[in-house]
Structures are given as C-alpha cells and as structure tokens.
Amino acid sequence: MATIAVAGTGYVGLVSGACLADFGNTVVCVDNNPDKIKTLKAGGIPIYEPGLEDVVQRNVASGRLSFTTDMAAAVRASDVVFIAVGTPPADDGSADLKYVEAVAREIARAMDGYKVVVDKSTVPVGTGRKVKAWMAEELGKRGAEAAGYGFDVVSNPEFLREGSAVQDFMHPDRVVIGAESLKARALMKDVYRSLYINETPYIETNIETAEMIKYASNSFLAVKITFINEVANLCEKVGANVQDVAKAMGRDGRIGGKFLHPGPGYGGSCFPKDTQAMARIGRDNGEPLSIVETTIEANERQKNRMVHKIEAGMGGSGSLKGKTIAVLGLAFKPNTDDMREAPAITIIEGLVALGAKIRACDPAAVAEAKWRLESVKDSVAFCASEYESMEKADALVLMTEWNQYRNLDLDRVKTLLNRPLFFDLRNVYKREDVESKGFVYHAVGK
Ligand code: UDX
Fold it and tell me: What's this protein's family per the entry (predicted)?
C-alpha cells in the first residue's frame, strides 16, 4: 500500500483521503485552513455526507488517517500527493487554477525525492501538463540535486455523487488513471490495490484522455437529463406520459434507464460547471460542442419553464400576485445540504418576481438557502417542517425529492392548504392517488 498526502480537505479531498485510508493506505490530509484541521482533529466533519463520519473515525482510530496544516511535512512523508483543491469558475467562466498552481509549486518546494502528483480536482484538459511545468520550474530554482528527484503527474478524475460519495468511492464503476510512466502507473495500482484486485474496471490512459473522460462523462449525463426534460415538455403537449416513455427507452441496453428522470433542471457543483467548462474548451480549440452548448441553454429554460408552469396552473398571467406558495426541498437534490446551482434558487426568484410569497423547507439546506436567496429574503419564510410550510399556502410545490416528502399525508396537506393545488416537479406521486384526494395535480411530462 502507499503513503499518501491529500492537499485540500474539501468535499473531494476529504472523501478521497478517508476512503483511500480505508483501502489500507496511510493518508495525511492537509489544509491551509487551521480551523478546518482543528475541527477534523477533534472528530468533526465539516460537510454533510452520509457514512463519511464512520469512515473517518475508524481510520483515525487505526492510525491510517491524520490531519495537518503542515504541507511540507506531509509531502515528505508521502510517495503520492493528491491535489484536491477547489477550481472555482473565474470571471470568464473558465476554471481558476490558482489553488492548483499554488499547491503544485508548494509540493515542488517541499519534496525530497521522487513523487507522484495526482490531479483529483476537475481541471481543464491540459492542466496536467501545466502542473508538470510549474513543478519543474520550482524544482529548477532549488538547484541540481532537487532537479534530479524526478516526479510524475497523474490525472485521476473522481465521479462522486453527493449523498453517495463514500459508496461511489468504495465501489466505483471504473477507476481512470492518466499517467505517462510505468513507475507512476505501478504506484497508482498500489493506491487502488483493493479495487484493482476486485476487478473494478481500471482504465489507464494518457493524461489528456483522463482529463477529457471526466468532462465527457458529466456532460453526457447532463445531455441525457436535458433530453428527457425536453421530451417531457413535448409529452405534456401531445398527451404522452414521459415516465412510461423513459421506462421503455431505458430497457434498451444501449440507452440505459438511469438519468432519465425529468425535473426542474439539473443543478449541483458539477454538471453546470463541467458543461460550461467543456463548452469553453470546445470553443477555445475551434471545435464547438453544439450539443453541450444547447444543453446549457435548455437547462436554463427548464428552470424558467417551471415558473411558468406554476403561474399557468394558478390561473395564468398575474395570478401569482399576493399568493403564497409552499416549496418542499431546496437543495439541488436529496441527501445533501448543497445549494450550488440548485434549480430552487432560479425558480423561487422567478416566483417572487411575479409577486408570490414563499414558505420553504428543507431537511438540510436551509442555512445555505438563506444566503443564496438573500435578494428575495423579504418574500421567503423558512419553515421547520413540510407541514408548517403548507399552512395557508395557495399551492404546494415539490422541488427536491427528499424521502420525507414522498409519503405526505395528503388529507392533512389538504386541510393546511388554501387551495388543493399540487405541483410535483419530480414526478414522485401518482396522478390517480393525488386527484382522488381532490387535488389538482401538475407534474412534469405526464
Ligand atoms: C454528479 C455526477 O453524477 C458525478 O459522477 C460527478 O462526479 C459529480 O456530478 P452530483 O452533482 O452529486 O454528481 O449529483 P447527481 O446525482 O448526478 O445529480 C445532478 C443533478 O441532476 C441534480 O440536480 C439531479 O436532481 C439532476 N438529475 C439527475 C435529474 O434531474 N434527473 C436525473 O435523472 C438525474
């Protein structure tokens, strides 16, 4: 097994570090934020991710996982250094690589022998080469001995879904390793030995290919969701049921049934950012990806479409003025407190712009929702429970399909609402069940 340093204890870094320790490696997680490291050392987990606390605790207890702010010591103690720092969008929409660059240079300044440096952050194609160049420049400044240490850069993209990141890391559909030298490939096999011997598909490529696999995979999934969203919109017009369409399509092994659930548009930290980045890489290289460009636009339209669906269902133009709408779920998907690019933001802002007041709830995302919805705060009340948010509301909107919203007591819902009007933006309910209770029911594409 390998000795590993993971730079960055954000979402990807912490999940990766903890799970790599669980595979039997010795891992030290590094962050330059002392408060974060203090929290982790005290057993606290700064993010909401089911199962993560257990993995962290058992590996800290076994001595395989530790935390530090001392990057130089962590680098010297490790054969493999993962870069898992943020790559926030820069003003022009491209990924800002300043944190990646800072860490790459820091590794080169600290290293005392051969290292494999692994890009885990999602970075534009070509970043692996840049990391190599930054490190070479830094090593060059240290003189002949340091220049002779040698290092390899590896691209090892992650495919973790929030809410099931631990499971996804432990049982991935594939491991992708973009590397140039046999030495680096051999070390990466040590890192992932427990998956490798379990015959998890293990794909070795060059660095650019690995970087591209990540963008192509996420963009394809975004295209798939957007495709079914548009089919759903058409189904509404022609009297078809998109759920049956998706089910029948999915039985074709070439298509597959996953990611064919229509809804209010995709959100989250990955799909919006990665589709934007991939579209940009295409444009920059004179090979525009028209399908990805169209997907980005169609996803924006889908969110706005939900606003108009609700307005139309409430009586058409002007009907939202002074009305109260209960919104169940704010996070971009269930089992996360993450509000990044959540469709709820655009949709709530749209409803408020048309004069509505919102009573919203979410099991985990309210704290983040409060500041993300700052611009409309006078029109949004946050409620402690789903039933509280329905009190005297003129319509109910199911925005995010948390489990506790899947089995609502519809009789109780009806007594709480002013009007029995239900917009199910995630197609969780059966039309017959809701209509038989006397509701007017609107879903997406059925
Ligand atoms: C995604 C990828 O799945 C993961 O592999 C990658 O590494 C990071 O991005 P995540 O953003 O955590 O993971 O969430 P995911 O479960 O993929 O959902 C993304 C968005 O698509 C959510 O807003 C979800 O509601 C939406 N979605 C998903 C649909 O609208 N319909 C679907 O059928 C599937």
Answer: Belongs to the UDP-glucose/GDP-mannose dehydrogenase family.
